[in-house]
Every structure is written in structure tokens, then in C-alpha cells.
From TrEMBL:
Segments traversing the membrane: none
SUPFAM superfamilies in UniProt: Arginase/deacetylase (SSF52768)
Pfam families xrefs: Arginase
Organism: Phreatobacter stygius
UniProt protein name: Agmatinase
Length: 307
């Protein structure tokens, strides 16, 4: 008997749920964690469930290549890491353990957040497997603020301090808007990141910027962190820190497509906040980013890096 097309499978696009990696080349991992410190918007802990729900609206085959990445990569959904929102240390440990378990099998971790703080434990785990890790961080904010502690504003500061990424070849793209403390742009540059604000991205053009990124990174292993507030709130209203002047849906998808050719070893889609979403549109867009990321990974496996 075949499954009913009207039955909701509680995994991403209905892929098999497994607790063992097996021969999967890409693994969906839910990270339903937020720090619980945002003064106005708490809800990204609910993001993974909403993204999975909205993923049922997607279709697997790519329009141009005809590739079904779910089949090509043997994608599985391993469920959620055992995190507790607001509890930093035990949740970070759980995230690190889950990510390292997947990455050590050389499967690509495709994680669903959760807020931006989850980037730090992910980079810790990926660095242990890939010591020459670099990051491409797509976001309205650098998350590399000159403040202490472990939170959504410091993940990429702590990553440099802990030596987790080759910062001189790491890029942050899409920054704009106001900040809660002064000197944020300068601090990101002082850490060594290549920071490309949204105004520069639009002025130079997506392809020109990402041609530079691909050239600088080469075949090094890449952690791609895609914060959904890179999009304009008119496109993705259900995020934790909506910031006007962001990408259209077309531009945001083009930015992801421009990451083609990078050696992706980890991808994170974060900051969907379902209580603030409208008709699930932000979660549906996040699910689309997830599926298109799997398409990039499938092409990567068809044409090995350096091949």
C-alpha cells in the first residue's frame, strides 16, 4: 500500500526518519533552540517544525537539471538535537555532538534553526572534522558584535576567538540597518572577516561578489549560514529581527545559487519565528532555501570539488 498524498510526514519533504547516518550524503537536523533573550520576539525554537511542515508544499525535481536531490543524496531526517531553549551550555554540547556525529561520516549537515546562536556550536563541531573550515554567512547582521557572552550577536566573534574558521577567507554578506551597539562593522573587519554590506552587494551585483568569494575560498570546506532576515520583511516577516531593505525572494535565491561550486560541508537555515509568520510564508521560503541547498550539494557530488 502506498502512502496517502494527503498524509503529513513530520520530516523534511517526507524523507525517511533515521537515527543512523548509514550511506546518506546529506542529513536534515533540527535545532529548535533560541537563547530566550530577545526583548520582543521569542519563537525561533519553533522554526524546525514549521519549516518541515511547509516543506510538504515543495516538489523534489529541479526545474533546470531534473535532479531529485533527495534521491541523489539519500537524504534522511535525523530529527531534532536534544536542546533546551535558554540553556546555553548543555544545548551547545548537544548541538556539537549531533553535528559532529553527522560530519564525521562525511555527510553534509543541513540544519534547521533555531536562532543565530546555533552557528557557534555547529562551527565548533565542523572545525573538529574540517580544520581548514571557512564560513559564508548570509545575514542582515554580522553576529560578530564587540560584546561579551554567548548569544545571537556574538556567534561569529567567538568563532574567530576560538580559531574555528579561516577568517581571512570567510565572508559575511547582506549587512544593513541599525545596531544595538556602535562599531559593529569595524569590529567585524578587525576580526578579519570580509564584510559585504547589502548596499555593496546590490551595487556590485550578486555574481561579481560571489565570483570573488568562490575564487578566494577555492575548494576549502565551507559552512554556509543563511539567516532568513537577509530577506526583506515584506518577503519573510516571520523572523526574529526583521530589517527593512533586504533581499527580494528572487535576489535571495540568486545569492544561494551563486554559492554553487563551493565545497559545502554544513548548511544552516535559521531564525524563522512561526508566531510572527504570516501564512507560513517565511517557513515556506526557508524550506525552499533548504531544498535548493540540497540541489547545490547534489551537483557538488556529481562534480567533485577539484574535479
Amino acid at each position: 500500500m502506498t502512502a496517502s498524498p494527503f498524509a503529513f510526514a513530520p520530516t523534511f519533504m517526507g524523507v525517511p526518519h533515521r537515527t543512523e547516518i548509514g550511506d546518506a550524503k546529506a542529513v536534515i537536523l533540527g535545532l529548535p533552540f533560541d537563547c530566550g533573550t530577545h526583548p520582543h520576539r521569542i519563537g525561533s525554537r519553533l522554526g524546525p517544525a514549521s519549516i518541515r511542515e511547509q516543506s510538504q508544499l515543495l516538489r523534489a525535481y529541479d526545474w533546470t537539471t531534473g535532479i531529485n536531490p533527495l534521491e541523489a543524496l539519500g537524504v534522511i531526517d535525523i530529527g531534532d538535537a536534544r536542546v533546551t531553549s535558554g540553556e546555553i551550555e548543555p544545548s551547545y554540547a548537544a548541538i556539537e555532538n549531533a553535528v559532529e556525529t553527522i560530519a564525521s561520516k562525511r555527510a553534509v549537515v543541513v540544519s534547521l534553526g533555531g536562532d543565530g546562536a546555533i552557528a557557534l556550536p555547529e562551527m565548533r563541531a565542523l572545525h573538529r572534522v574540517y580544520p581548514d573550515l571557512v564560513t559564508v554567512h548570509i545575514d542582515a547582521h554580522t553576529d560578530a558584535y564587540p560584546i561579551p557572552g554567548y548569544n545571537t550577536a556574538t556567534a561569529f566573534s567567538r568563532a574567530v576567538e576560538e580559531g574555528l574558521v579561516d577568517v581571512k577567507r570567510s565572508y559575511q554578506v547582506g549587512m544593513r540597518g541599525s545596531t544595538m551597539v556602535p562599531g559593529v562593522h569595524g569590529h567585524g573587519l578587525s576580526l578579519g572577516y570580509n564584510v559585504v554590506p547589502m548596499a555593496e552587494l546590490l551595487a556590485r551585483g550578486i555574481e561579481a561578489v560571489f565570483a570573488e568569494i568562490r575564487e578566494a575560498i577555492g575548494d576549502r570546506p565551507v559552512y554556509l549560514s543563511y539567516d532568513m532576515d537577509f530577506f526583506d520583511p515584506s518577503v519573510a516577516p516571520g523572523v526574529c529581527t526583521p530589517t527593512w531593505g533586504g533581499a527580494s525572494a528572487r535576489e535571495g535565491l540568486a545569492v544561494l545559487e551563486a554559492c554553487g561550486g563551493l565545497n559545502l560541508v554544513g548548511v544552516n537555515i535559521n531564525t524563522v519565528s512561526p508566531p510572527h509568520d504570516v501564512g507560513g510564508m517565511s517557513a515556506l521560503l526557508a524550506a525552499t532555501i533548504t531544498l535548493n541547498s540540497l540541489q547545490l550539494i547534489a551537483r557538488q557530488h556529481q562534480t567533485p570539488v577539484g574535479g
